[in-house]
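Shipment paperwork, digital attachment
Item: protein structure file
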Amino acid sequence: MDLMRHLVLTPLACILVTASTCASPSSPQATSRSEPPHCAKTFVNAITTSDATPGVWDCLSPAYQNRLEGQGDRVFAVDVPLWTRYRYLGVDHNIALFDLTVNGTVEPAVYNPPVSHVIMAVYLDSAGKVDHAKAATPS
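Attachment content:
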């Protein structure tokens, strides 16, 4: 009986996954945009430069602002940013995805083993402000 259930449910699950990922771009599950949401783009610009980024503080949710040590548009400005460039990958619901290029001058111990790119998920709140972000290294 378990084998029969596996033979029936596995193909059914595959059909459901395929149908949901092939939804039209205007569906609420996923949208394809050529430009990232405004605050996600402002945030990623801020973390990939050593300069202050105008408007970044206003693009952070109050909860995110409270978790940071600094404040204002220089909050992410550092001498040597961890990442230098980004490529926008798309958005799904409230998550904007980016491919970030790792700065070649960063200490090798930061990414061990060394990587040249990371994927960052930028989570937006209901107002479109950045609530938090998580980076993951490819395996």
